[in-house]
Design goal:
The complex is a heterodimer.
Chain A lengths: L11 E4 H15 L3 E5 L15 H5 L4 E3 L4 H13 L3 E5 L10 H9 L1 H4 L9 E5 L15 H5 L5 E3 L4 H13 L4 E5 L7 E4 L1 H4 L11 E4 L4 E5 L2 H15 L4 E5 L2 E3 L3 H11 L2 E4 L8 H13 L8 E3 L10 H7 L3 H11 L11
Parallel strand pairs in A: 2-3, 2-4, 4-5, 5-7, 6-7, 10-11, 10-13, 13-14
Antiparallel strand pairs in A: 1-8, 6-12, 9-11
Chain B lengths: L26 E2 L19 H26 L13 H10 L5 E3 L5 H7 L3 H9 L32 H15 L5 E6 L6 H13 L3 E7 L2 E2 L2 E2 H4 L6 H6 L3 E6 L3 H17 L4 E6 L18 H9 L3 H11 L5 H24 L18 H16 L11
Parallel strand pairs in B: 1-7, 2-3, 3-4, 4-8, 7-8
Antiparallel strand pairs in B: 5-6
Helix pairs in contact in B: 1-2, 1-3, 1-11, 1-12, 2-3, 2-9, 4-12, 5-6
Classes of the chains: A alpha/beta, B alpha/beta.
Chain lengths: 347, 393
């Protein structure tokens, strides 16, 4: 997963986990109103060690180990945000946030509007989203499309360590509620990080996608872990004479329609990639946005690569079949380029 | 080594703690049904000024409820929720608090806003959703709120305000402010998961919150016998490690004293307090409800008249020589006039402008909404006859 971009060998590298940890540390140091709350975030150093060292440094008032009640601590976090603190609420996974979704949507997302601007909710909800490895149906659901449909929320999806740093800082500093969807399998991935990104004031804009790889034949949009797979697919496609442009969405809501449309107007072909379920997914929204804004530029129907329309199975071979693989992305790109390919994956 | 939780005495006798106590938790009251102080009642003395003001506001609340209810029936507003029978809970609790104490209401506590200075015109504006509504016409009637008066905007979701209150109290605690948070909810709301999570959290985090449960016997058509099997709500306090009291919610003086005492403890000792105020919902759940369908009409009538908290306080202030028949009729006719005037004015004010449709979704309006507003304005310009006359552009 390492993308060298011509830095010297002295370039700093960071895992996504380290990137997130450094942001929490820096933002809590800079602003006494920022505090972290969730299950196991304190003494245990974080269920995935993202909050390592923070309890020791900031104490139990700023790093709060909560009882087991997502509905409870999310509501409490929202209440704290109503009164001016800036909580970062960690869900062990976003699957568990379903218990708290009433507070995320009805108490946080809609409140600035319903209160006519009187009550702002500067809260961040973060945690791993989507599939991990062998954790089954109730631990593998992707919620990007769920939260992406709700006005009042901002929804961010970092891929690299630099994404993690810039987007989490932007999220914590933002006056609106932000859903920050991480990925468990990405926590340990190492990426080079520029000096600019290491600065404590580094922030990425919310609502801007990043073109990870430029190309001219087909646009591939992806977010989170799927960006890595799409980049690998682009390497394979390049060897077959297809130049793919890979867009790292970074932001599900607001969706960077202008970057995606500009790319499709250049390449005339689009493949969307996501881990989540196909119906009402992120790809469906992107596809429609292209139809609305750039229909005349399409040379082929849009294709969406998604997870299979089944609750995630546990067995490793079945799980592999239920998630997009590099080959699926390659085949889809070839299809929109009208190269002949077998339709389905083989076991 | 002791078991986690500390030292406990062991016994060879196997006995189960009964599901219900020998005797129900006692209910604190100061005045009897005729508004006369009970012998040996301990209560915080209330000055003539405060007592008369409490009474005046209770009458105002009662009158406002009746008139707005009628306005809904006449089709002038779309919806209303009365607090009939709970005037003492509303006003007396508000009187015992300070301005800096944050209030997280459910939806049957407009009296707290009234006490703090929300005017009848402001109430009317919100109900009519007009241009002067602080809510910019975005919510149904009775979803009031006021930043200035430290009263969080009413939201329709049940019991969600309870963990919010604890979160805000945590904020106050971190700031070391000389203030507490007060949250109100009904008997029905205590069944929600949010209630349990919040009160547990408040105990563990030692948050300065006063939980006031208006146990009025009904959650729409669900009587408390179908809501829980505990001895009301007060017994849950100890279950979570929270100090609690059961109070006669229709006794303004008992409400005043208990809330004041609770406030001192909440702030001084940095702990949560639970107050269960027993009362009766003498009105329907809302204008969408006809409670005669599930309870006897004479029961409703009895609570409205014989057990009216407003007349009970009136008897006390009259017996002190602080009130009279003339004062009564003057007050009632004045308030009624003011309310009718407020409604007339509110009804004529324009609706909020089109721009208020698109703002406040986020801190800064996003490009898609700015675009949609532009398209909408163009459409209105092109087809002005299709556009309602009382909505400014």
């Amino acid at each position: 997963m390492m993308r060298f971009q011509g830095y010297t060998t002295a370039a700093k590298e960071m895992t996504v986990r380290e990137a997130l940890n450094s942001v929490l540390d820096e933002e809590m140091s800079a602003d006494p109103r920022v505090f972290l709350m969730g299950e196991e975030v304190g003494e245990y150093q974080g269920a995935y060690k993202v909050s390592k060292g923070l309890l020791q440094k900031f104490g139990p008032e700023r790093v709060v180990d909560t009882p087991i009640t997502e509905a409870g601590f999310t509501g409490i976090g929202v209440g704290a945000a109503y009164y001016g603190l800036r909580p970062v609420v960690e869900f062990m996974t976003f699957n568990f946030a379903m218990q708290a979704i009433d507070h995320i949507i009805n108490s946080a997302a809609k409140t600035n509007y319903m209160s006519a601007g009187n009550i702002s909710v500067p809260i961040v909800f973060r945690g791993p989203n989507g599939a991990a490895a062998g954790v089954g149906a109730q631990h593998s659901h992707c919620y990007a499309a769920w939260y992406g449909s709700c006005p009042g929320l901002k929804v961010l999806v970092p891929y690299s360590s630099e994404d993690a740093r810039g987007l989490l800082k932007a999220a914590i500093r933002d006056p609106d509620p932000v859903v920050f969807l991480e990925n468990e399998l990405m926590y340990g991935e190492r990426f080079p990080v520029s000096a600019e990104a290491l600065d404590s004031s580094f922030c990425l804009p919310i609502g801007k996608a990043k073109i990870e790889r430029e190309g001219k034949d087909v646009t591939i949009t992806a977010f989170s872990k799927m960006v890595g797979l799409s980049l690998e697919a682009a390497e394979i496609l390049a060897k077959e004479g297809i130049s793919a442009e890979v867009i790292n969405l970074r932001s599900i809501r607001p969706l960077d329609r202008s970057t995606i449309n500009a790319s499709v107007r250049k390449t005339n072909r689009l493949v969307t990639v996501e881990e989540g379920f196909p119906q009402h997914g992120v790809g469906a929204e992107i596809g429609m946005s292209i139809v609305e804004d750039s229909f005349g530029y399409l040379d082929a129907p849009i294709e969406r690569i998604t997870g299979a329309d089944v609750p995630m199975p546990y067995a490793a071979n079945l799980e592999r079949m239920a998630l997009p693989q590099i080959e699926d992305i390659v085949r889809a790109a070839k299809r929109v380029c009208y190269r002949s390919v077998p339709m389905a994956a083989t076991a | 080594m002791d078991f986690p939780g500390g030292k406990v005495a062991f016994t060879p006798e196997m006995s189960f703690i009964s599901e219900s106590p020998e005797e129900r938790a006692h209910c604190y009251r100061v005045l009897d049904e005729d508004g006369q102080p009970l012998a040996h009642s301990s209560f915080i003395q209330v000055s003539k000024e405060v007592a008369v003001r409490m009474y005046t506001e209770m009458v105002t609340l009662q009158t406002m409820d009746n008139i707005f209810y009628e306005a809904q029936r006449q089709g002038r507003i779309s919806f209303y929720v009365t607090s009939i029978g709970e005037e003492a809970i509303n006003i007396a609790s508000a009187a015992a608090l300070r301005f800096d104490d944050l209030v997280f209401p459910q939806y049957r506590e407009p009296g707290v806003l009234l006490w703090r200075g929300f005017t009848l015109q402001e109430f009317a504006n919100q109900c009519f959703g007009n241009r002067d509504d602080y809510g910019k016409g975005r919510q149904m009637p009775i979803h009031y709120g006021s930043n200035k008066l430290n009263y969080f905007t009413v939201s329709s979701t049940i019991a969600t305000q309870i963990p919010h209150a604890v979160g805000a109290a945590y904020s106050l605690k971190m700031d070391k402010k000389d203030a507490c948070v007060v949250t109100y909810f009904g008997d029905g709301g205590t069944s929600e998961g949010d209630f349990h999570a919040a009160i547990n959290f408040a105990a563990v985090r030692e948050a300065p919150v006063i939980f006031i449960c208006r146990n009025n016997g009904w959650a729409i058509s669900t009587p408390t016998s179908d809501q829980f099997r505990s001895d009301g709500i007060v017994v849950r306090g100890q279950a979570y490690g929270v100090r609690s009291i059961r109070v006669d919610g229709n006794d303004a003086l008992a409400m005043y004293s208990s809330v004041q005492a609770a406030r001192v403890m909440a702030i001084g000792e940095q702990r949560p307090i639970l107050i269960e105020a027993l009362t009766y919902r003498a009105g329907h759940h809302s204008t969408s409800d006809d409670s005669t369908k599930y309870r006897p009409a004479n029961e409703i009538e009895w609570w409205r008249t014989a057990r009216d908290p407003v007349s009970r306080l009136r008897k006390w202030i009259e017996s002190n020589g602080w009130w009279s028949e003339e004062a009564e009729s003057e007050l009632r006719s004045n308030v009624r006039k003011q309310l009718l005037h407020a409604i007339q004015v509110a009804e004529k004010v324009e609706k909020p402008p089109i721009s208020d449709l698109f703002t406040d979704v986020y801190d800064v309006p996003p490009s898609n909404l700015r675009e949609q507003e532009m398209v909408l304005r163009e459409t209105i310009k092109r087809y002005p006859q299709e556009y309602p006359g009382d909505v400014p552009v």
